[in-house]
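Question (not urgent): is this output format expected?
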Amino acid sequence: IIGKLTEKIPWLRTKDSLSIPNDLEVEGTELHFNDRNELDYLVFRVTEREGTREYQGYRAVRLLQLRYISLEARRDAGLLQKMRTVLRGLYGAQVDLVYLAAGVFKNPNVGIVQCYGVAAFSPKKDEAIQRSLRDLSALRAGLVGAYRQIRLEPLSTEVAQWLARALEQMPYAIVAVGHPDPRENARGGDSSMRDPLVSGSQGAQQYSIQQNELLFRGMSSLEEEFLLMLLTNHVRLEDITRMLAGMLEDTSVYASRQLGTRAASFGISLPAILTGGLAENASRSYGTNHSSGVTQGEAATDGVANSEGQAHTTGHASTRGWAHTVGISETDTIGSSSTVGTAVSQGTAHTEGTAVTDGTSHSDSSGVANSHTDSSSYGVNGGVGGSIAPAGVGLSANVGGNANWGSADGVVVSSGSSDSSMHSVTHSQADTVSQSTTQSQSNTTSQSHSTTQSEAWTTSGAETDSVADTTSTSTTQSHADTKSTARSETDGVGLGQSIGRGISAGMSVGVAPSFSLSNAYQWQDDPYILLTDIMRTQRKLLDIASREGAFYTDLYALATSEQGIQAMMGLIPEAFHGTEDVVAGVQTRALTDPEQAYIGLHARAFTPSTRIETIPEAMSGYTDSTLLTMLQVAAYTAPGMFEQGSALTTQEETPAFAFYPDIPGNITLARQWSSETGLLTDTFLKLSPDRHFHTAFVGDTGFGKSIAAERLAYETTRFWHYRTIVLDFGQGWRKALNWPGMGTKGSEDSLGHVDIRQLYPGSPRPLRWNILQVPKRIEPGRYRSMVAELFANAGRMGARQLGFMRRALTELYYEAGILTGDPKLQNGPLGHLQDEQEVELIRYERQSLGEDLDDLHPGTLLESLSPSELQVLAVYRSRKLDVSKWVDRLRTYKEKLERDQVSRTSLEGVLLRLEQFSEGHMAKQYGSSASGTGVEDLGLMGNADNPWGVIVIEGGAEMDEYSKAALLSLLASILYSDAVTRRRETLAGKHFPPMQIFFEEANKVLTGVSGGAASDQGSGDSGNPVSHLFQTMWRDGRKYNVFLHLMAQTVSELPSGILSSCANVFVFQTKDPKDRDLILPHLGRSEKGLVNTEYKRYLARIPRTYAIAKLGYSDDVFWLEPVLVRPMIIRSNEPSDLEITQELGAVSLERTASDILATNRSH
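Got this back:
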């Protein structure tokens, strides 16, 4: 039986040894690298032979290594099906896939490297290179389309060199043939798998859910270097169809031999008969016949037929129409006029004049026109009909309807800007005597021609519904009467005579013995049954291949040692062998030394073997190739979920974020990242003025907050002409000096719009600012409280320390006559104008307002002055104050409280923080000065009619954190309060640009810093009234065209309500759990429960310079989803101190004559 089975199944017959053809010559090899030292492509100059044909040309190979596939792929049961779709696409694009899996464990020690690539052959080198590039694009697109966020990168130089060495030096090779069994299960584990030895059911007979991972794990444990290479060549569908037709014919022959019937029978019969006869007879006859008959018949027939019918018909028709209409109209106009006139004039004139004219104008215009047209029409029709006829009655009814609609949209955006200036001086003197007689006649003929073109896009649709009901009734009646009469007569005469003779005799003898024997049975041929099953499996695979295509597939395995190649011989069947829908399972074929050299040569050139298979009726015509379906090839080439290697497989995919390709706006902030492809795109995140709001840039240090903030500051300042104040806690913003389009050489008005000032002592451009001088637009009492509260907040001081500071400032302000609106002061010795300087100050104020200048003299009572005049006087008198006086007054408090140890301790904490402002360079920089800077005008640069610009206030590293926090918070409060007052002034016609303030290290500026000095406050900013001050700024700032932007590392330490007031936010990597809980609701994601946890985890692994951006200020919910972006960095050099002073000039702290005089007068 075994012999017969071997003879009937072709691939079990004993095979002759296979010859090694001379089918490949490699004449040259080139490796090309790109500018990043990555492998670009390989080129082989080859001569290939197959049969009697020879092909000379170039084979170009391009490879991409798998660098990342998401963790979700481990749980994806459709992993192989996705690869199947990729292969189906490659087959349609006629791309030959190359798959490599390499174990790189020595020089360098990388682990498993999985590569996907293409091979292209052409007689011309350039054509082969270009074709391989096109094919690689198809491969990359297919893999990215199937596996979300997969990352493929070119091979590094080290891996490329290892690959070249492995192909040249690995001496051991084997070939794998047969059909792999695709295991379509999730690769992350399945707790429902059962032991097939226990359950015994077919459903439990499962294989390991992993495939190539088994091979990778086994070779990695041995640290044996290897190279697994898979080469595919697509087979034409017509060839597959011919294979299928031949297979069907062969299968039917074997199928007809599976069953049959056998039978046997026997019988005998011997009959014999003999007959004879003789007879004689005579006869005569005569006959007469007469007949007569009458027949009458009568019949009556009545018939009735009744028929009824009913039909119901419903009809629906949908019509869509699209029309593009172009219209042209021409208009001709001809006009004619005739004018006749006569004028006589006489005159004498003497004229002298001088005119000086100066004029400047600037106009901006912009317009947006939108049009939208909707049209619709509806109709309903119906009808009823009936008929009456002799044969029946009919009734019919129908109802119909139609609807048409159309829409058209249009938008026109226009903008314009013009600047003009004029200066003229004219002197004239003239004596004129004139007499003139003028006659005029004019004939005017005008003709105009206009041509109008119009174009319209129209979309229309119609919906028609009809219903018909038909009822018919038919009744038929019939009646017939029939009468018939028939008469017949017949006469006949007959005469006949007959004579005959006959003799008859007979004999009959018969013998008929019978015997029957039969035997029938049914037979079947099991070898033919088995052979038919195998061939039907082949037919099934060919049937699948005839619908989606198939590849001739070569699978080569190379190793550096005998142990490695022996391990591969066991691991390949273990990983890929199976019995489901396979004809021949995966088998590894040991090779002789000449065969190993032959396979090694083809592997080095990425060229498939052409050895012919000598077994008849096999699926493949080649020894080392197997015809595989898409799913079978996918079993080999699906990405392996194996972490020890160059591919990252344990990281979950990036969560889904919105993607807005048409976001409105005229400034550009960042580039959007696509969560579908996992790639950074060239689609920009834009912002329009109507969506600009307070913005928070939050995240851990070093991840790009300043990059995003700088971009926002640059774009809004340059293109929207905002007034931008940057409170730089360090000195990272000074590169603004080199921002394009902002300096004197690049700005549109050729004026400088950048300034840099420093807070730290010894700086090249110090901000010379008397911090006790009352600002122009802030009431003195309010400013006194503001200074005390902010300086206390900067050091996180308590209520007792705040009380001492405020009390000392109140006394100083009262003694200097600064609280000009206080009734107590007005009734005291400083309750009137002290000297001519104060009189001139008030007179100038009244003159600027156009008021009466009389009744002003030294001694004029303050209660007679207006609030604005009192404010001007308070600003003037506060110039004499100095921080050192504040410190001295606090020292006197301490000396008087010898027995109150608690108060002394509080005062010591205050003095330790404030004393530095009264010493050294800081005493000069922040003390009294007639030439100090009015901080309320910072950032107003350029043309006085249209001031704008950016000023950077650097804190620097030389200054302690308390001083920077106190000064920057006070500066921000002054600017905000000043902007609130300016907003009212704009209602009177004045122009002030919108202002925005950027807070670097906002946590420290807003909540203060901890120091070694004593503080009587518990912790943080709980109960601190200053937090409410900042909340008011963030809550109401936009009403006054003030935008506040914070940069913070720890969101949870910000005063409550600040983050929620920032409608726009850029979130960078944030790892603190409390911070992430505060950020998620801001992004519209839940921070509780089990939902949206992927977003919470992603916050802790956002890449550097990437951010989640949400522009949340919009009246359309469509635009409110967060977007993953990469802010665009401004490429500019950071200037040195010398470059800053060369560009902007140095600022000296030396006392001027006016400073000395002011100091002497104060004493």
